[in-house]
Design brief:
The chain is built from four helices and ten strands, in the order H-E-E-E-E-H-E-E-E-H-E-E-H-E. It is of the alpha+beta class and 211 residues long. The chain folds into two domains: 76 residues, 2-Layer Sandwich (wza like fold); 81 residues, Outer membrane lipoprotein wza fold like, CATH 3.10.560.10.
């Protein structure tokens, strides 16, 4: 009898889980929003701090409040005197001025310098490479970076890639535009004319070849 009751409980638990997961599968998650990068041309590029960046904050004549700090996933940093300073999306100079304003409550006319050690940058300023790259990943943008620079960073193409059918997705004036790339011609045939400028926020999609 005990065994029968135990089996009944197991069956009821399994049925309840099926109902829960069955309902969950009918729910649709909202699509992720792709935020456009702030940089619209290589000439206007200024490095912006992002989550994961390691910052050296130097306060002149106040070594006790100087130090090395990592930007948290929420884009904030906490220094020796000030908690929760927004850092992500700011240039090092902008962050230095913001810290000076906060520190002025405790120090007389503080002078702050911010330098970046580990460059990551905001997510919307990174270049994402997906598909048949040897090491698909997000690449931190550098001024005047080109398609060739990005492909070197991701290790080139896989043997299954159709590099000449790759596309670059870019948000321009709120619109998502696509541009055809000839990556195979660039890195396998050495066709430098296939090299193009990339911008922060670009997404490069490399499909698999049809054999």
């Amino acid at each position: 009898m005990f065994e029968g009751i135990l089996n009944a409980k197991i069956w009821l638990t399994a049925a309840a889980l099926l109902v829960i997961f069955g309902c969950s599968n009918n729910q649709e998650l909202p699509s992720a929003t792709i935020y456009p990068a702030k940089t619209e041309s290589p000439d206007s590029y200024n490095y912006l701090i992002g989550p994961g960046d390691q910052l050296n904050i130097f306060v002149w004549r106040n070594p006790e409040v100087s130090g090395s700090f990592v930007v948290r996933p929420d884009g904030m940093i906490t220094t020796s005197l000030v908690e929760d300073i927004p850092a992500s999306g700011k240039t090092p100079t902008q962050l230095a001025r913001a810290i000076e304003e906060r520190l002025s409550i405790y120090l007389r006319e503080p002078i702050v310098t911010v330098t970046v050690n580990n460059f990551v940058g905001p997510y919307n300023e990174q270049i994402r490479v997906i598909g048949e790259a040897a090491q698909p990943r997000a690449v931190s943008y550098g001024k005047n970076m080109t398609l060739l620079d990005v492909m070197i960073a991701v290790g080139g193409l896989t043997e299954f890639a159709d590099g000449n059918q790759a596309v670059l997705v870019r948000i321009e004036d709120g619109q998502q535009n696509q541009y055809k790339l000839a990556i195979e011609d660039l890195i396998k045939a050495g066709d430098i004319s296939a090299n193009v400028d990339v911008l922060p926020g670009d997404i490069i999609v490399i499909p698999e070849a049809w054999f």
